[in-house]
Amino acid sequence: MVEHSESAGCPFGERLLRAVLDRRTPAIVGLDPRANELPGVLRHELQNGSHLNTARLYQKFCCEVLDVVGPLVPAVKPQAAFFEELGPPGMAALQEVIRYARHLGLLVILDAKRGDIGSTAKAYARAYLVPDAPFAADALTVNPYLGPQTWQPFIEEGCAAGNGIFVLVKTSNPDSGVFQDACLRQGKAVYQLVAEAVQQSAERTRGPFRYGSVGAVVGATYPQQLAELRQAMPAAWILIPGYGAQGGTAQDVAAGFQEDGTGALVNAARHVLFAYQRSPYREKYGEMDWQRAVENAVRDMIEDLAAGTPARRLRSTP
Amino acid sequence: MVEHSESAGCPFGERLLRAVLDRRTPAIVGLDPRANELPGVLRHELQNGSHLNTARLYQKFCCEVLDVVGPLVPAVKPQAAFFEELGPPGMAALQEVIRYARHLGLLVILDAKRGDIGSTAKAYARAYLVPDAPFAADALTVNPYLGPQTWQPFIEEGCAAGNGIFVLVKTSNPDSGVFQDACLRQGKAVYQLVAEAVQQSAERTRGPFRYGSVGAVVGATYPQQLAELRQAMPAAWILIPGYGAQGGTAQDVAAGFQEDGTGALVNAARHVLFAYQRSPYREKYGEMDWQRAVENAVRDMIEDLAAGTPARRLRSTP
């Protein structure tokens, strides 16, 4: 295990804490571009449906979203799959979107759910987590199935640069329980065993700071597990997907926070990106002013989280 | 669940069976290019170490490996991480390597260990498993942690085109047991629960054929589990990494086969690709004739598997 060292600077968990305190909200925006949901004003540029054309449009759309959300939230979460679907031009668009987000001062959590062994995990770390990586993000989501030692190359390669990982603990989908909730002889569930390893890694990488470089992903759709996991992983940030489009509410995510309103990030993607399609934004802004719809959806989300979760305390910090 | 349908043509498992019977060996070659292990004759072209330059060299190296192994083995397994590490030029190289392998009549199993929920899994399937995908492979490795329903988009998108997935069941790394071997209250281990779901998916997708579209990954380094999993998943092909460089021998992988020598694929990557560095190939061929070293390493592997496993019966088929 790489312990935190002085030379490593502050761990990802501390950088994230500062970003959240600065923007005073745990809301983050998922960048999940989908060709058939783009606002008409962009969709009409989908001339031939080639991967190159679509990739350029995804880049344009995401960067225009970033222009709006950049001053409002601490981080964004691009979803790698939607860019990979477009081949090398999609990956080039992802690269530009990550660069632009960081240029705007946003932390980038790349949602790619990677995981492999030894030198292969190291290659993934060098693709996504080192400072000169082609897709240099601040953090990467990682799948735990192969074992906690397989996270180590991500920590070793990324940690020194102040980057981090979020390990999948309890995912937001309806059948996440089939393997994750399987009950072990010792009385724990599989996800609880994973959470213990996450807490150990977070503790080992936090140094003198409160949160380490290793966080967890826990879906908004499982509020009870979220409450329990918040207790079980005090040194870990929890990234909570599933707010909005997947049905999670402020009430559902409230238990993911520490009392002071830190420790949780709440992600919304479709709910924000394609707000122009939904009431009341559709009536107010329509497709022509889809950016205002995004802005207002994010502001509403920030208000909702401030009203219904301990994140309200981020507002009262001087 | 998408059941097998007449219109779907033959499932991936049957295509793979035909390829194995045609080449009369379960040996497959992993394409894991590493800049610092390339033969000197190629490495001297690594002029500036730019990603573009390295990506072109990876493509050249892999295609020259394919020229050698194309007539000998049924399939190859490119490792996505080593290409992703080079950014968009790496992904373009991966694209060309996949195309060239299929052009030579090889099946391509892309080792990318993807896994996500709903429409995100669908995007991954469209990146890697549909006929017009940018990285159109014949099969993809998939991580099971998110639950068996999350494999469904891969099956639905890829199955109709005769493509398949290999789900990670028991991986070859030393600490794979931390989560995979965790013992459930019902007496099974987690990997056995995953294997049950794999067998069900394989059974549902096999139609009138012997093997379905869903296979399993089981490491050569766990011969006991391999024997047990062969029994537990009769409708599933087992992809066995870990032969050679990771320490697995013919004896270790023997239990992964059915009696007639089908049902298992044995992968070697470094062991074959960088054979020129190892005795006796180094002495016989050296760096200048690294392709002969690859060829002889593959031929030796084929002989080793024929001598020490039920794969010998593939030789006696008329």
Short synopsis of the structure:
The structure is a homodimer of 318-residue chains. Chain A is of the alpha/beta class. In chain A, 44% of the residues lie in helices and 13% in strands.
Model description:
The structure is a homodimer of 318-residue chains. By secondary structure, chain A is of the alpha/beta class. Chain A has a single domain, classed as TIM Barrel (Alpha-Beta Barrel), CATH 3.20.20.70. Chain A is built from 15 helices and eight strands. Chain A has an eight-stranded parallel β-barrel, surrounded by eight helices. In chain A, strand 6, helix 10 and strand 7 form a beta-alpha-beta unit. In chain A, helix 3 packs across helix 14. The longest helix of chain A has 19 residues. Chain A is globular. The relative contact order of chain A is 0.16. The mean pLDDT of chain A is 94.
Q: What does the largest sheet of chain A look like?
A: 8 strands, parallel, barrel
Record the strand order, biggest sheet of chain A.
1-2-3-4-5-6-7-8
Radius of gyration of chain A, whole Å: 19 Å
Oligomer: homodimer
What fold name goes in the CATH topology slot of chain A? TIM Barrel
Per DSSP E runs of 2 or more residues, the count of β-strands of chain A stands at 8
